[in-house]
Amino acid sequence: MNKIDTEFKNRCFVVDSNDITVFTSDASLDDCTIEFNASADNLIINSMKMQRGEFKANKMLANFQFCKAHFDQVSFTGSFSGCDFGQWAKKHGDTGLLSECDFSNVDLLHHCRFFNCDLRKEKLPRWPHVTIKTNDKSLEKIAAISWPGDIGLLMNIIANVPQECSFVVINTQALVDELGGTLDELRVCFAEQMDLNN
């Protein structure tokens, strides 16, 4: 087990499949890089703090809870699916935070939920990614759209996120691959009712 439990500056930490890397509540990373090359089982984050620097998911990081981490001005690159970011107080207490982070250069950000985050302060990827605000007005718009294929079922699931969720980011190409339809159809659906990230 590789345990990170102190302050570091300008260091690179590699998470690979040969070991489990644990970032403890005493870990404080300033201008550091985390390179993820394994599965979610090889990474444990427990209330660490990361300021600036970069989190690189060179391998798809799926279904991971970042809600125990404090990220401030961190850039995220690579592929993330089914991940949660921010402060989900009801489930994880007040340990998490996401502030002024940059996701604009990710390859994939799909089914990712953001809790208690200010949409205006985070840089998010453009089309074919779409950001769905989870306020009542946006959810009414989701319900009013005639979605192609089985995508409407997924949208109903997205509409039932926990109350603390501020917004969800999905990748429309991944939706098409999973559930059918075309990118053009989805673009029309979103453009009619919602703001696209483009």
Strand order of the largest sheet: 2-5-8-10-13
SSE sequence, one letter per element: EEEEEEEEEEEEHEEEEHHEHH
Uncertain residue ranges? none
Question: How many structural domains are formed by the residues?
Answer: 2
Span between termini: 42 Å
**Helix percentage range:** 10-25%
Radius of gyration: 17 Å
The major beta sheet can be summarized as:
5 strands, parallel
The number of helices is 5
How would you describe the overall organization of this protein?
- The protein has a 5-stranded parallel sheet with strand order 2-5-8-10-13, with no helix packed on it. Strands 3-6-9-11-14 form a 5-stranded parallel sheet, with no helix packed on it. The chain has a 4-stranded mixed sheet with strand order 12-15-17-16.
- The chain contains 5 helices and 17 strands.
- It has helices at 89-92, 136-144, 151-158, 172-179, 183-193, and strands spanning 2-4, 7-9, 12-15, 21-23, 28-30, 33-36, 43-45, 49-51, 54-62, 70-72, 75-81, 84-86, 97-99, 106-110, 112-115, 129-133, 165-171.
- The protein has 2 domains: 1-103; 126-198, no CATH class.
Observed structural traits:
17 strands, single chain, 20% helix, alpha/beta, 198 residues, globular
Short description:
The chain is of the alpha/beta class and 198 residues long. It has helices at 89-92, 136-144, 151-158, 172-179, 183-193; strands spanning 2-4, 7-9, 12-15, 21-23, 28-30, 33-36, 43-45, 49-51, 54-62, 70-72, 75-81, 84-86, 97-99, 106-110, 112-115, 129-133, 165-171. It is built from five helices and 17 strands.
